[in-house]
Specification:
By secondary structure, the chain is α+β, with helices and mostly antiparallel strands. The chain has 7 helices and 9 strands, in the order αβββββββαββααααα. The strands form 3 sheets. Strands 4-3-6-7 form a 4-stranded antiparallel beta sheet, with helices on one face. Strands 1-2-5 form a 3-stranded antiparallel beta sheet, with no helix packed on it. A two-stranded antiparallel ribbon has the order 8-9.
Length: 275
């Protein structure tokens, strides 16, 4: 009976020691990404070790293409702060839908440990030289190249212009034209082609003569509509990103998994000093 009890106690002791030894690595651990950059971090558990070396690889993916990759190594020491945080900037303006894949690995006494994280996010597209609609400028005041405009012989602040963007047209061609006239001016000021300046001048001249909200009829309404249509055609030109293709080192999530498998075997050869 005593022998069986001693055997049971030995097994329990071995399991508890093994659990302590194997509980090595970050827990909790998480990663984050947005249109500006990425971060990863957590709290490292050391087991019987006094420090842990780790490796990480971050891939920025759009569709099936890897746009950028970042990698590095670091060390967390038990006698210091067990929490760690690694951050990085994308180093470019992002436009569209993206996925961030993070692979991190550390090597402990009994082999490597691995964690993977994934985050998706969407970035607004503000491409140089593009034109945007009144609806875009209404919903993105932070992108305005100026904070006030002169429209139809009247000076307006951005706040006043945003209120007019919310104003219902109710068949008033001066309001419809005003919306597109403001958008066209903002587009030109933001760097779009300025061939529309003649129509912008016509719109200003018309609103100088027939003030906003005057609801002109007959030929005057037709004149205003013709100007509005020319401005709208300019504001509604489809915009494409014509930046050169980026040289890709990995393509798609499947390749990411393949790269992770390679890293597990290759980085596992790194030797850690155990003090």
């Amino acid at each position: 009976m005593k022998r069986n009890l001693l055997v049971s106690l030995s097994v329990l002791l071995l399991l508890s020691v093994s659990s302590a030894v194997f509980a090595v690595g970050p827990d909790p651990f998480d990663a984050y990404a947005d249109c500006y950059g990425w971060s990863m971090g957590g709290i490292m558990h050391f087991g019987s070790w006094d420090h842990i070396d780790y490796y990480y690889r971050v891939s920025l993916i759009q569709g099936d293409d890897t746009i950028q990759t970042y990698s590095g190594t670091g060390t967390v020491y038990e006698d210091g702060d067990p929490s760690f945080l690694i951050e990085g900037d994308w180093g470019m303006e992002l436009c569209g839908d993206y996925t961030m894949y993070l692979y991190t690995q550390w090597i402990g006494q009994f082999g490597p440990g691995v964690k993977r994280r994934e985050a998706t996010f969407t970035c607004d597209c503000v491409l140089e030289g593009c034109t945007y609609t009144p609806g875009y400028w209404k919903n993105h005041p932070e992108d305005w190249p100026v904070m006030d405009l002169t429209v139809g012989c009247v000076d307006y602040s951005q706040r006043q212009l945003l209120r007019i963007f919310d104003k219902p047209t109710r068949g008033d061609m001066t309001i419809k034209m005003f919306h597109h006239l403001v958008a066209a001016k903002l587009n030109v000021l933001a760097g779009a082609d300025d061939y529309i300046m003649s129509a912008i001048g016509d719109g200003d001249d018309f609103l100088c003569m027939y003030h906003l909200g005057s609801k002109p009829n007959g030929d005057r309404k037709k004149d205003a509509e013709a100007i509005k249509n020319e401005l709208a055609a300019y504001n509604e030109i489809p915009c494409y990103d014509e930046t050169p293709d980026v040289m890709l080192s990995i393509e798609g999530p499947a390749a990411m998994e393949k790269a992770a498998a390679t890293e597990e075997s290759s980085w596992g050869s790194i030797k850690m000093k155990h003090n």
